[in-house]
Structures are given as structure tokens and as C-alpha cells.
Design a protein that fits this description.
mainly alpha, Arc Repressor Mutant, subunit A, 3-stranded mixed β-sheet, 4 helices, 3 strands, 53% helix, disordered C terminus
């Protein structure tokens, strides 16, 4: 009977020890540095910046503006207007074909949303922090 009592206490001790280890591990994880990690993004070469800063439909229906980056506009111009392939546009802008694809997908979605929902489009560069949604 006395040995059974010791085993029961040992089981509780092991359970409490595991819980303490989990709490300590969670505390260690929280203390790790977050953000500002990874490589810096490649600079995007934009030889012809957009000539406008904003576009407002008439009548304006939506309240919030849609922010579109200069790089997205340049990718649209090169692929859709100039008729370049994504590889050629990527070489000219100094980024990969996958990055051009992401720029195109994002720009096309934003423009379609602005046209359908009647929202304004604001053209900005990525480093420009003055314009926020």
C-alpha cells in the first residue's frame, strides 16, 4: 500500500515536471527575436515611373482607396502594353519571373476591384510610408 502511494506521487511529480518544462520552453520561445529577419528585398528597376499619383472614378462609390505600387504598374506596362514575356520583363526590371507574376496578379486584382467596386487607386512606391489605407 505504501509503495502504491509512492508510485501515485511519482506520477504526479512527472506530470508537474513535464508541465514546468513546457512552460519554460514556451517562455524561451517568446524571448526570441521577431521581425527584421531574412534577406533584404532586391531593388526593382523602374525606368519609366507612373505619370499619375492617383485615379478616381466618377461616381466614386467605395470609401477606401486601393494602394498599388510602382513596381506593379511597371510590370503591367511591360507585359500587357509592351507585349513582353514575363521573363523579358523580369530581366528589364532586375527581378525574377516569379516576382513579375506576383506583381501582375496583385495589380490585376487591385485594378479589377477598383473598377467593380468604384474605388480610387493610389499609386505609391514601397518606400513611401505617407499613404496608408
Amino acid at each position: 500500500m505504501h509503495n502504491l502511494h509512492l508510485l501515485d506521487n511519482a506520477h504526479k511529480y512527472i506530470r508537474v515536471t513535464k508541465q514546468i518544462k513546457l512552460v519554460i520552453a514556451m517562455m524561451r520561445r517568446r524571448r526570441r527575436r521577431r521581425g527584421c529577419r531574412g534577406r533584404f528585398p532586391k531593388p526593382v528597376n523602374i525606368p519609366i515611373p507612373a505619370k499619375i499619383n492617383s485615379f478616381t472614378p466618377y461616381p466614386k462609390i467605395g470609401d477606401k482607396e486601393i494602394i498599388i505600387e510602382q513596381a506593379e504598374i511597371e510590370a503591367l506596362r511591360l507585359v500587357d502594353l509592351e507585349g513582353m514575356s514575363q521573363e523579358q520583363a523580369g530581366e528589364q526590371m532586375g527581378v525574377s519571373r516569379g516576382t513579375i507574376w506576383r506583381f501582375l496578379q496583385s495589380a490585376r486584382e487591385k485594378i479589377a476591384r477598383a473598377l467593380i467596386e468604384g474605388r480610387s487607386i493610389i499609386v505609391t512606391s514601397k518606400s513611401d510610408d505617407t499613404v496608408k489605407t
